[in-house]
């Protein structure tokens, strides 16, 4: 892609990300070299993946000796995938829909990696372009790249990571049968699936993922893996790679993995929390974390507070992207550590926005925000782009945080919550979509085509599951993400 530059308003200049002949030649040359290396490692094919608006990772694959052609000229695909629902039925919006049209998938070569869990296969996230080489307006990875560039134009960068929760089933059918049944967070659950978890860790390491920790979670068969923070694009790429690695290892063990927000209506749901910290160079040219070392709440700088306040302010609208399924609202209930209230607090796992300082002595590096009200049905690129846009708007408006909440907000008297401005987050996907469509800042950041298509897909899934019981909703979503 061409070198990015910004206009005076901080917008990427027209054509900043377009493919031209010289760039196509450069990409083809790099891919040819990569293909030779992969062939020497026994790799037969490359999976090119993107995540659709419904949060499902879709793929096209190419033989490794076709990687050069794919990098330079792309692989054809229909734009209609952006309006697939979770059951693969199709709706149409004002901008996307119907059988006509073509896009080109181009592998992101710097993220091309052999998959240890799928011998003979490599993986690369894909960028989607129109045939004329301009980015597709619904390409979520391109949207995220644009948001990181907008922050960079103002001197800011973000470190980010996704915590991924999943549930493991030993059943061979559609039902969920927990593959481990020991106590919540108990060592017994590690012992029950020790070989499986070992292989997950080994495959992630061999694929280049830096794991921080892996542990059993609350519900039966439920686990969580945390990875090292990186730039926002890298964090979203890694989130996809981690999920597909876990899925492959799980299949190899004769088990099934679900990343659904709710595998059973009466179980605790799975989230996919996002960790964010805001950075810029200090006077000495060293990177400095805006979430530490300041005079704001719990050591935040003024900019760190504004960034956090921007996200908090827009959480109801952000849920249309971050909690994107009908099943998400079976998980997003009070007193379940899901963050069902629009509030923030220091290490408060019931707040939608948890502020994490880290241990004494590491706060300058470790302090960050955790967004708890989102789940793995979200497109990680689109979610990250929207979070950065909300934080950037908070910086521009110099927003301030309200008073922190140090307890479960559900336990506070309703009158006290009202006085402190602590409101429940949307309790349904329809309410979240209404907030999203009314949010001018997100509309401006993401564009009309994204807003319309997200709303169209969400309404399609609301209609799809209209009248369904919680059990039916959980069943319909269980194996889709």
Automatic annotation (TrEMBL):
Keywords: Ligase. InterPro entries: Gln_synt_N_sf, Gln_synth/guanido_kin_cat_dom, Gln_synth_cat_dom. The keyword DNA repair does not apply. One of its GO terms (molecular function) is glutamine synthetase activity. Pfam families: Gln-synt_C. Residues 140-481 form the GS catalytic domain. Transmembrane segments: none annotated. One of its GO terms (biological process) is glutamine biosynthetic process. It comes from the Bacteria. Belongs to the glutamine synthetase family. PANTHER family: GAMMA-GLUTAMYLPUTRESCINE SYNTHETASE, TYPE-1 GLUTAMINE SYNTHETASE 2. This is Glutamine synthetase. It comes from Actinomadura meyerae. The lineage of its organism: Bacteria, Bacillati, Actinomycetota, Actinomycetes, Streptosporangiales.
């Amino acid at each position: 892609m061409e070198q990015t530059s910004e206009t005076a308003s901080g917008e990427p200049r027209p054509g900043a990300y377009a493919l031209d002949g010289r760039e196509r030649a450069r990409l083809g040359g790099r891919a040819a070299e990569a293909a030779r290396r992969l062939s020497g490692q026994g790799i037969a094919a490359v999976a090119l993946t993107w995540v659709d608006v419904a949060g499902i990772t879709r793929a096209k694959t190419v033989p490794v000796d076709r990687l050069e052609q794919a990098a330079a000229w792309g692989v054809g695909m229909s734009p209609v995938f952006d309006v697939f629902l979770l059951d693969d039925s199709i709706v149409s919006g004002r901008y996307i829909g119907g059988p006509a049209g073509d896009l080109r998938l181009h592998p992101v070569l710097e993220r091309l990696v052999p998959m240890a869990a799928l011998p003979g296969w490599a993986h690369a996230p894909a960028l989607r372009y129109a045939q004329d080489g301009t980015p597709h307006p619904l390409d979520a990875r391109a949207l995220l790249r644009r948001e990181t560039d907008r922050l960079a134009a103002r001197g800011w960068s973000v470190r980010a990571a996704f915590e991924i929760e999943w549930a493991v089933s030993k059943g061979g059918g559609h039902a969920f049968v927990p593959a481990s049944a020991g106590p919540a967070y108990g060592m017994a659950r590690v012992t029950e699936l020790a070989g499986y978890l070992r292989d997950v860790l080994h495959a992630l390491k061999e694929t280049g993922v830096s794991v921080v920790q892996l542990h059993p979670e609350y519900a039966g068969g439920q686990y969580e893996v945390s990875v090292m923070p990186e730039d926002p694009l890298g964090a979203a790429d890694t989130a996809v790679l981690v999920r597909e690695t876990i899925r492959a290892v799980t299949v190899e063990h004769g088990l099934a993995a679900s990343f659904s927000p709710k595998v059973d209506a009466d179980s605790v749901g799975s989230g996919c929390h996002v960790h964010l910290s805001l950075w810029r160079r200090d006077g000495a040219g060293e990177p400095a974390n805006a979430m530490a070392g300041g005079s704001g709440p719990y050591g935040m700088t003024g900019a760190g507070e504004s960034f956090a306040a921007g996200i908090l302010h827009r959480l109801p609208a952000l849920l249309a992207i971050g909690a994107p399924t009908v099943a998400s609202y079976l998980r997003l209930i009070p007193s379940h550590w899901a963050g069902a209230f629009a509030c923030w607090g220091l290490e408060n796992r019931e707040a939608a926005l948890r502020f994490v300082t880290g241990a004494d002595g590491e706060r300058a590096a470790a302090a960050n925000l955790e967004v708890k009200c989102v789940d793995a049905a979200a497109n990680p690129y689109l979610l990250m782009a929207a979070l950065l846009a909300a934080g950037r708007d908070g910086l521009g408006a110099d927003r301030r945080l309200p008073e922190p909440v140090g307890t479960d907000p559900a336990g506070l008297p309703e009158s006290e919550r009202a006085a402190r401005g602590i409101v429940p987050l949307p309790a349904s996907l329809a309410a979240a979509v209404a907030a999203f469509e009314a949010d001018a800042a997100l509309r401006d950041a993401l564009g009309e085509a994204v807003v319309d298509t997200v709303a169209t897909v969400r309404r399609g899934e609301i209609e799809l599951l209209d009248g369904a019981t919680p059990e039916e909703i959980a069943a319909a979503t269980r194996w889709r993400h």
